[in-house]
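User: Fold both of these, please.

Assistant: Here is the first one.
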Amino acid sequence: MNRSLRLTRRAEASLVEIAKWTIEKFWLKQAELYE
């Protein structure tokens, strides 16, 4: 099932920060797995 989601700007910014933190801590390969 493929559903489209709409995020608030705050939620989107949070996800970006989570991705940055993950890359800093676990490198890009792990961040790609979480994606």
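And the second sequence with its predicted structure:
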Amino acid sequence: MSSIKQAPWQADALLLLVTVVAAGGWIFSKEALVGMPPLLFIGTRFLLAGLILLGFSWPALRRMPIRRVRRGLLVGVLFSAAIAFWVLGLHYSDHLGESAFINSLGILMVPIVARLLFGDRPPRSTWVALPIALLGFALLSLNAGFRVEASQLLMVCAALCFALLINVNTRVVRNVPALPLTTLQLISVGVVLTGLSLVVEHQPLALSPSILSWFMASVLLASSLRFFLQIKAQGMTTPSHAAVILMLEAVWTALFAAWWFGETMTALQLLGCSLIFMALLINRWYWVRKVLLRWLPGGNPSR
């Protein structure tokens, strides 16, 4: 019996909820950034979220060897770079839907980074998907008038760092349980970026009750709850199966941005985002097919 067939439907439901909460996090963050400098916002957000998860992961952390704790914190420094690029890209972005699809390129970059750094051989589907994704990104750049905007470049850097982070997590800290590892990385990001903000950011705070509400929604829902549910769901299914469902985050983000901010897409933006999403589906086609067969009536995922 395949691992996909063993994965309960509860895992799919939780992962789908994770994508909705994560997409909501884009809205919460964009609203909170109106009154907070980007690095201070993301640093304090992750620090508080890490401290909340610490209450759940403390028993496991106490039993962990110090070398594993140190590795988790060090990998968190790489996570800091990824999330710093992300929040700066979000800060400068005028179109959340487009940014979300560019950020999702990190999924496609994972096997490519593995090839460059660790000599792994990417599946054939990656080489089919890559030119389609590049064409999609080129169309998004054309929409800006034959130039790459700062927000687009920052999101590409974030995607590359996330791809590197995923590779490092699967190799350097593979023996660290997911919840303690997430806690260590969130705290590491919080300390690094909050400290960096105090040095380089001079934007004044404008902490109105509305800004504080968006900030706390980012901490409690988009960070603490999102990672807790994601860790729980990923423990109930395979990583590749989970990755297929998590790709929906970009779709939800575009829909939420259209609803909340009234965003619309030009024909070039819509085509570019569609090509990027098509590339992600091609890259994960084996697992996409498994998921579809499992969800369709009478489907047999073992075929």
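The chain is about 80% helix and 0% strand.
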